Amino acid sequence: MAAALVVDLEAEHSMDVILVGSSELSSPPSPRSRRDLVAYEVQVNQRDIEDMCICCGSFQVHTQHPLFEGGMCAPCKDKFLECLFLYDDDGYQSYCSICCAGETLLICENPDCTRCYCFECVDTLVGPGTSGRVHAMSNWVCFLCLPFPRSGLLQRRRKWRGWLKAFYDREAKSPLEMYKTVPVWKREPVRVLSLFGDIKKELTSLGFLESGSGPGRLRHLDDVTDVVRRDVEEWGPFDLTYGSTPPLGHTCDHPPGWYLFQFHRVLQYARPRRGSQQPFFWMFVDNLVLTEEDRAVATRFLEMDPVTIQHVRGRTTQNAVHVWSNIPAVRSRHSALVSQEELALLAQDRQRAKPPAQEPAALVKNCFLPLREYFKYFSTELTSSLQMSHYTVKTATKKDFS
Ligand SMILES: [Zn+2]
Ligand SMILES: [Zn+2]
Ligand SMILES: [Zn+2]
């Protein structure tokens, strides 16, 4: 892998630098790893932390870390971009908020925060032994939630949300601009327009909609033939517009392409005015009923390529969907590529009405987790299970990004 090679070369290069720099000084002890080098260089050699990658210790700084003071090398920047909005099924982020890696992660117990930190980052940047002390604490809040901005060498950036947006807009290859994440005290419940397929159950289980009676903040429409702009503006405003081709077993009055055209039409009514800074998200899901030509049209209309998300049991793909969405990290979530032949077989199974193992909405459910950075969420079994039991650590799920 190219990235690993770069890191190795840099490691050799930076070792040379320490040997020269550390010869006259006796304390603190010479750094044992490249990560320890960060503290050593800053404390002993008075190096500016912005001139070192705080994720790995490299001197080849490409940019600045968006959340904490310090630099970031190009390979760490790529990893950070890829993992920025990745969440696990437990509702917490999948990786360390500093280095975007880490196997054992400390989780923040602020109920409104979903961030994690690896032992190595905490021990090298805050101070040796810190991870053990945090692990023993029953209620720990993280470096972005603490009232004071500095812990050891770890200094939270002022206005880090603005830094994060600027970082993403500058570094990501995505043509989509990122919406600035919203601080907890400003987050409102999400207002949803759900066309054809309904995602009420999924959004409720994630805590975005309050369970119980009442119409809530989701409007579901099965048929939009007579819906005009004035209707949508009256029902809105909306923060999320979801649409899908009809669920299986649903009597279709229209050809599959019709659902795409109608979704696109209604999406234009639901969108905020051009240039608005209000976060607005959308998702269109095809459960393999669109033809290849329809998919090409969808890609032109929605101005992005679809991502295939699949449910795999053992070695067989049980179900798959094509997803077009501007929700962050939908692209990072897609797992190994599915062959066109496999998808064609699945689509054939559909026609024989073999029921899929998982409904399309269930397949895309976790794609909504990044919305936690933008909207209020209510407590659910998912969000409270880790916090109630006072776990302060979790093990990162290994993901393959090759
Ligand atoms: Zn790095
Ligand atoms: Zn880390
Ligand atoms: Zn936190």
Automatic annotation (TrEMBL):
The keyword Nucleus applies. This is DNA (Cytosine-5)-methyltransferase 3-like isoform X1. One of its GO terms (molecular function) is enzyme activator activity. One of its GO terms (cellular component) is cytoplasm. GO terms for biological process: negative regulation of DNA-templated transcription. PANTHER family: DNA (CYTOSINE-5)-METHYLTRANSFERASE 3-LIKE, DNA CYTOSINE-5- -METHYLTRANSFERASE 3-RELATED. It is found in: Nucleus. Residues 41-173 form the PHD-type domain. Keywords: Metal-binding, Nucleus, Zinc, Zinc-finger. The gene is DNMT3L. Gene3D superfamilies: Vaccinia Virus protein VP39. InterPro entries: ADD, C5-Methyltransferase, DNMT3_ADD_GATA1-like, DNMT3_ADD_PHD, SAM-dependent_MTases_sf, Znf_FYVE_PHD.
